[in-house]
């Protein structure tokens, strides 16, 4: 009996241990699912150290569209920003915000620079959402709202530490930190969400990696219904939706990250600029994240496969390096229609990035490329050639939309 009693006791203890382990295992699974999957790490350092042959642009871009903003109804010199949707094209030019149809026909100027309550004091940034337009006005700490016909709607108060904005929906806006803000400023932040009254829905902060120095401009791009942002505060890419700000990727810069000494001293930073990875721009599809950046006096491109976590990178020689050390030319070879080879990704809408180019530069680039690029779509090349022959050298810059594959 004693042996049987001891055996039953052993079984009870074993059962309790198994149940406890099962409970712990179940708790662990529930905990992981409630906090989400681990944040993917994009190993940019590895990609730079193990470059590959250039991948075709046509593997990631399905079409290129050329928009000619109406001329001479509106005169445009430099385009500082662009956003668009299926109905409208919004161009931010020198102290003006111009609204066009999707095809480039001029509709109106949104507001104007002035002292009136419905006027802006200069444009820090702007954005478009359906037929809703937002202007972040300089100095006044206000976001001014209009419809696409230029009718004033309302205003939203905002901190002076905010620079770029993105409309999330009719009642929510994403805010981004002002470049030049000191890294020891207690009001330093990564990104935030405000409602239309200016109330904070969420503000994401983090201990900055660099204790000294001035904040650089964040990398911002659109993906589906979210805005993505990477700042110099840490190496995390955050996804901003209308309700929350969550980590989406972590970028591993390895030894190519700007040193703390260089970040704190602008003179040292100028000397080390080509020895580190900075000034990144991104665009994103359901399956890939595309990145471009200057490094080691070359222009680099990288593609991260979101399904396999594989990253591929390659470089191209620039056409020129100006007196400030910035690269000119050397873009991702355009094998779609033989036109402009993009050097950076300006995200003007989900699924698109844009390039603005003077008519003469578009013509020159096409002629240079035509002799040595094998394009995937000869009919698109012919269509572009017809467009180029119709361009007037004095007309407005051409807005080029690169449509990403799904």
Name its key features:
406 residues, alpha+beta, Neuraminidase, five-stranded mixed beta sheet, four-stranded antiparallel beta sheet, 27 strands, 6-bladed beta-propeller
Summarize the structure.
This protein is α+β, with helices and mostly antiparallel strands.
The CATH class? Mainly Beta
Number of beta strands:
27
Give start-end ranges of low-pLDDT stretches. Answer: 1-35
- Based on helices, strands and strand pairing, what is the structural class? alpha+beta
Number of helices, counting only DSSP H or I runs of 4 residues or more? 6
State the end-to-end distance.
Answer: 72 Å
CATH architecture: 6 Propeller
Oligomer: single chain
Question: How many domain regions?
Answer: 1
* Beta-strand residue percentage: 35-45%
Radius of gyration: 25 Å
Could you tell me the CATH topology label.
Neuraminidase
Shape, principal axes of CA atoms: globular
Q: What strand order characterises the main sheet?
A: 1-18-17-16-15
Quote the average pLDDT.
90
Helical content (DSSP H or I, runs of 4+): 10-25%
For the largest beta-sheet, the strand count, sense and barrel status come to: 5 strands, mixed
